[in-house]
Amino acid sequence: MAKIKLTKNELKKQKDQLKRFERYLPTLLLKKQLLQMEIRQVEVQIRRKREERKQAVEDLFCWVDVFGEGIPIAHLVQVEEVRLDTQNIAGVDIPVFSDILFANPAYDLMENPLWVDAAVKKLKELVVLDVELSVLEKQADLLGRELRTTSQRVNLFEKVKIPETRENIRVINIFLGDQQTAAVVRGKMSKSKLVRGTG
Asked: How many domains does the chain have?
């Protein structure tokens, strides 16, 4: 505990500080709850996207086994641009997936089998799922970091600052009360000496 002055000014300062802490704490608690709720929602979305991706990969492997002829098609799926927006949640700017643009490389329809178009479409779907999953994981990371910081602040206020300030106020009140009592006693003693001296 820091050394405090045992004065009326310090008492007022400590009381003002306590009011600020008690006014700020509910806001921090609300932010903590909001972050926890958002993290749960993002985690649900991540699980869904992972399931979608797993299913898409299974579908793709089954499909490739049937139609695979050793024709390289990966070069036909090239990401040109990933567009992200930002959203502010409880004071945290998080990325939000908006869109993805693919390059459209030309290929000869006569030289490639009919299934190439469908394979390119499936690969694009898989790339979109990968990008969405990556963005959701980034959201969870940013929200998780903010939740840790907010939780630390809540603990600081609840377990350190507010109890410490209350204790400071109690100590100052006791000291000032003792000073007032001592002043009254000194006043009575002086008065009795004056009364004895004149009588």
From this structure: 1
Is 131 within 8 Å of 82 (Cβ atoms)?
Answer: yes
Return the pLDDT at 79. 87
**Residues 6 or more apart in contact with residue 157 via CB below 8 angstroms:** 21, 24, 25, 28
Spans of the chain, pLDDT less than 50:
none
Q: Could you give the CA distance from residue 194 to residue 186 in angstroms, rounded to a whole number? A: 12
HSE toward the beta carbon, residue 17, CA cutoff 13 A: 16
**pTM metric for this prediction:** 0.78
| 107 sits in which H/E element | none
**φ, ψ for residue 192 (rounded to 5)?**
-65, -35
CATH code, domain with 19: 1.10.287.3240
Distance CA 89, CA 130 (A): 23
Q: How far apart are CA 54 and CA 30, in angstroms?
A: 36
Domain hosting 45: range is 8-68+76-183
pLDDT of residue 192: 79
pLDDT of residue 27: 94
Angle between helical axes of 115-155 and 8-67 (0-180°, round to 10)? 160
